[in-house]
Design a protein that fits this description.
The chain is mostly beta strands. It has one helix at 45-50; strands at residues 2-18, 25-32, 38-43, 55-64, 69-77.
């Protein structure tokens, strides 16, 4: 089962890394959330390209229980009031 969710987080930075064989590229972002927690999330290339470090972003995520994984699939700049 796949669950979709949306959350707002401060994106601290982003990184990409090639696999050992050079065939794949993995994308991730470091985020901080309102309750003073921080961590790293895997993301798609599309979300990676939209992320702006040190900005608050609205993130769309998908949790896949088959692989026990959470991945950011989209990111837009948050409107802060």
């Amino acid at each position: 089962m796949k669950l979709e969710l949306r959350t707002r987080a401060l994106v601290i930075g982003k990184a990409e890394e090639k696999s050992r064989d050079g065939q794949s590229t993995y994308y991730r972002m470091s985020v901080a959330v309102a309750n003073a927690q921080a961590g790293t999330l895997n993301c798609t290339k599309e979300a990676y390209d939209k992320v702006v470090p040190m900005k608050e972003m609205d993130l769309s995520c998908v949790f896949d229980d088959k692989y026990n994984s959470l991945r950011v699939t989209d990111a837009i700049l948050a409107v802060v009031k």
